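Late entry, written up from scratch paper. The run itself happened at the end of the previous shift, but nothing got recorded in the book at the time, so transcribing now.
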Amino acid sequence: MPQNKKIDLFFYINLFCNDKCSFCFFSKLPPRDNFLRLADIRKVFNQSGENNIRGIILTGGEPTLNPDFWKIIDYIYNVYIKTNKVKEFDLSTNAITSAKIDVAKKIEKYFTSFDKNYPDIKISFSFSSFKNPNRQKIIDKKIEGIKNLMKINGNIESVIVITKENYKDILEMTKLLIQLHKKKKTKRYFFKVDYRLPYTSMMYRIDDLEKLIIPFKDFSNILNKVLDLIRKENIYTTLHNIPLCYIKNKPEYFIGRKPPQGIAIFPDKKTGFVKRKKMFEFDKNTECDRCKLKKQCSGIEKIYLENYNYLKLKPLIYEIIN
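Output as recorded:
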């Protein structure tokens, strides 16, 4: 590995989940019991070299279901977080296991930091749907888990992937998150919301995409309603796979997040684990170079423009007044 080149390590510590999100490619795969063990995690770190690591992301499947989860998180916290060797640490969970308050409280130990010199450590939970008669028990558990995670001291990020399944409920989801945020009795934590369109390059089949991607008009209407509300409430918000020129009011308020880049580590029964580069290519045309917000815009995957008639990107040419 090249020296002095910082990378993010995305640990898919297991390939099984207790949810079935329409936007997740793992939900399209047959059930698997593969998972990374603590010994695998240690080996990856030894191969990577601690000076080359910028961020550590624990994801899955649902990472808290990994039999070695608490051993893994304890090791990462004590070796890399507590010692301030990495800049970012993120647990990506669907929040269902946190419906048990003792799980949320146990997680809190590893994701509470009030020292400005500490890394950016946060819990990201996914909010895939709000109402579904066929899955209401799971959804109720998820909401309870989210409520528990919002009670603890720690940096919290809510990730909402906008799909055909949930777009009519996005406004209600956002109102619930704002309500929980306002109930916090302590200001010793940071809360943000991340809205995104699904990553189509994550091995979806064409027929899956047809069921997943909403028409641009519907997407634009709900997106702008939600962002008007979130801006009014002064909630820090980021956008993935959503260009800022799609926002009608004060697009400069929002931050477009660049697509994830780094090394993805997956469990493998024969070798313990396999590594793959995690890279996405988003569309930004030559006109985007003229845009005043080009540095804070993610762009969008080309397939949305080419196959689903999403609006062509147009530069926002004006001076931002602070």
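The mean pLDDT is 83.
(Scratch paper discarded after transcription.)
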